[in-house]
Amino acid sequence: MLILSGAFVGFAIGLTGVGGGSLMTPILLLFNYPVAVAIGTDLLYAAITKSSGMYFHHRRGHVDWKTMGLLAAGSIPVSLIINIFIIDESLTDNANFSSFLSSFLGVMLILTALVMIFSRFIQRRLETEEKASQNKYYRYLKKHRSILVLLLGLVLGVCVTLSSVGAGAFGAAILFMLFPSWPTKHVVGTDIAHAVPLTLVAGLGYLFNGLVDYSLLLALVTGSLPGIYVGTRLGSVLPEKLLRTVLIFVLLGLGTYFSLAQVH
Predict the structure, then answer these.
(1) Among candidates 159, 152, 41, which has minimal Cα distance to 101?
(2) Do residues 251 and 33 lie in contact, with contact meaning Cβ atoms separated by under 8 Å?
(3) d(CA 112, CA 152)
(4) Distances (CA, A) of 214 to 45, 51, 219
(5) pLDDT digit of tens for each residue in the chain (264 aa)?
(6) Which of 22, 178, 195, 244 is the most buried (most CB within 10 A)?
């Protein structure tokens, strides 16, 4: 069942480009894994599965390494601080913190769904830098963009480390707003390139605290690799709008459930 779950999530990633942390951690919670173990294992799973994507985009020149570095300068230190001072092996027995992690995960799932709903609208409104520059807001944005990218990294560091969600659709949507002239492939490539070190650092923090299940990680990776391949091949055939709509409703449902449910 876990290998099939990995295949399902990989299939969703291949079809829509979204679904790693957004689907994997909730599925593991439905299998009754402790919240901290589900998040920690999913973080390392994300680091492994996104590495090939980072290499693919780098080879094709889709990664802006300066922006990626600014994001990492904000996210990596925050992730290390959380792992040093907050995450430890006692979390599996801490019902209150598990409940907090579950609720935080639910909120991030809902935010991811909302971002997916409005991302196309954002892309259409911000097609070119010239159009955006006519607006005072975007002139301010252009002037202070480096600071805003660093702040985005800080936010993603917190969100990803505490929920394993945020390094995909959520981060990409904000990058679309910060860099309206960028082609989609550059936004996606930079976002994935940043997600790899962030999820790796966050996941290693959980691993050093005994909150990663190795056999579970192996099963998920085993299932996801062929799932991503099949999903990528079918993604060009199946209607993307329908697929994204289904995924949005799934994320909203899971987000509502985990936001309200108490973990015992």
Answers:
(1) 159
(2) no
(3) 15
(4) 10, 18, 9
(5) 889 988 888 887 776 666 666 788 888 988 899 989 999 999 999 898 888 888 888 888 989 999 999 999 999 999 999 999 888 887 777 788 888 888 888 888 898 888 878 776 766 666 555 555 566 666 777 778 899 999 999 999 999 999 888 877 788 888 887 887 788 788 888 988 999 999 999 999 999 999 999 999 999 999 988 887 787 777 667 776 777 788 888 888 888 988 886 544
(6) 22
